[in-house]
Structures are given as C-alpha cells and as structure tokens.
Design goal:
The chain is an alpha+beta fold. The chain is built from two helices and eleven strands. Strands 1, 2, 5, 6 and 7 form a five-stranded antiparallel sheet that branches. Strands 3-4 form a two-stranded antiparallel sheet. The longest helix has 25 residues, at 183-207.
Length: 208
C-alpha cells in the first residue's frame, strides 16, 4: 500500500524435523486498526515491526514442480501461529529474538545500526525500445488515414464520349459515397478543366 506495508515469504526446506514456511508482514511504522490488526501508518521506518505466521508440512519443492519463491501455497500445511490457531503471530522488532514453535529454534532481527535498523534498497528497471519511434510514426499515419476516410469526400467521375453527325458529344457524370452536396459543383469543375485541356491540345495540334 502507500505506507509500504510489505509481504514476504521464507521457505526452510531442510535442517528441521519438518519443512517450514513463514509468511511475514513488514510494517515500517506500526499502527493498530480498530479491529486490532496491525497496519503501517507512515511509509518511512519510524516504528518497524515484522510479524510472522508459521506453517509446516510439505512445501512442494521436492517433487520437481517449479514453485514461486514469492508465494507460499498453504493448502495442506499446518499453521502454528496467527489466523485461527489461537496463537499470536511471531512479532519482531529490530534487535529482538523470538522462538519458533515446537522448539525449532529462534529468529533474530539483526539491525544494521540503531539509527538505521532496516537495510534500504531500491529497485530500478531501465528499458529501451528502438522500435517505439516507428510505432509512433505508423500510429500517426493510421490516424491520419482514418481522418481522411471520414472527412475527405470520396467521388467517382466518368467521362463518356460518342460521335454524332455534329461531332463528338461528351457527357460527364459523378457518384459520391454518401451525402455530398458539392458533387454537382465538382462535376462541373471537372468538365470545365477537361474541356480546357482538350481545347489546349487541339490548338497545339493546329499550330504544328
């Protein structure tokens, strides 16, 4: 959360009569909710407390199946502290030592210094993607193409020429995709430009 309440897992597969798993909750500045549960009320290390719930049984790490080191599957395990066991979770403060259940040993929170009981660290991730510029460019082009398809009128124009006793008769027609109030004007402008082009070519041919 925003006050840096953290969850951690410790797995002890060997060295004890049973495999042991610990689920730890770290509170940088411990506070107590009305329900009695612990929480962190400030993200900096002012009143650090670590609580541990102890489980024992088969941790599932000897059968060859890959397991995450960040999670503990508690199904099938026996819980010894915390939860509905009736025993309080193990509670540690800097420099303190607590006993594990069943005489399995002790756990000590070894503080670095009295002024800084918790070792600080930072997690940084640096990522470089050379293709991001190309992706941006093609995204812009695709967007421009979409706007062009939506707002640029799409028309088809036809020119039909046929001979008559009086010469060549030329007809012009246009078809728009959707409503296009400027279609008639576009056909007229096209007919005018086409006629001017024909006249210019005819005059040039006459001079030669």
């Amino acid at each position: 959360d925003s006050n840096m309440t953290s969850l951690g897992i410790i797995k002890i597969p060997d060295g004890l009569p049973e495999q042991v798993g610990l689920v730890g909750f770290f509170y940088p500045t411990q506070g107590v909710l009305p329900s009695g549960a612990f929480t962190s009320v400030y993200p900096d290390v002012v009143n650090p407390v670590l609580t541990l719930n102890v489980f024992s049984g088969d941790l599932g790490i000897d059968d060859g199946t890959p397991r995450s080191v960040y999670t503990l599957e508690v199904d099938g395990l026996t819980q010894h502290t915390g939860g509905d066991t009736g025993a309080d979770s193990l509670e540690l403060t800097p420099g303190a030592t607590v006993d594990l259940p069943n005489g399995w040993g002790t756990i000590t929170w070894e503080e670095i210094t009295a002024e800084e009981p918790v070792k600080r660290f930072a997690s940084l991730q640096i990522r470089r993607d050379p293709s991001s510029g190309w992706v941006l460019m093609f995204s812009v082009l695709a967007t421009l193409g979409l706007f062009a398809g939506l707002f640029v009128p799409r028309r088809r124009l036809w020119v039909k020429a046929r001979t008559t006793p009086d010469g060549v008769h030329v007809e012009y027609a246009g078809l728009a995709r959707g409503e296009d109030p400027t279609l008639v004007r576009a056909v007229e402008e096209f007919a005018t430009r086409h006629a001017q082009t024909l006249d210019s070519e005819r005059d040039s041919g006459g001079e030669r």
